[in-house]
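At your convenience, could you comment on the folded chain following this short note?
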Amino acid sequence: SMLESYITPLLMSYVSKYINNIDPSDLNLSVWGGDVVLKNLELKLDVLEQELDLPISFLSGRIHELQLHIPWTALGSEPCV
């Protein structure tokens, strides 16, 4: 659908900025149900270090599970978390 062709790349642009091994099809298959669960994600350490601007270096970074909830039927009244 036209909405799907807009929303999935938008979500990918936010998530892929920080994650190395994200697959657009993972978002495509799940996002329309309102809940997305992504597992074993590898963080882009250089981006994190640049964004956080802290005097530390990361050696590794993974997210075991990332859950997103998008209330499509109530976007004006429920938060996206």
Q: What stands out?
A: Residues 2-15 form the longest helix (14 residues).
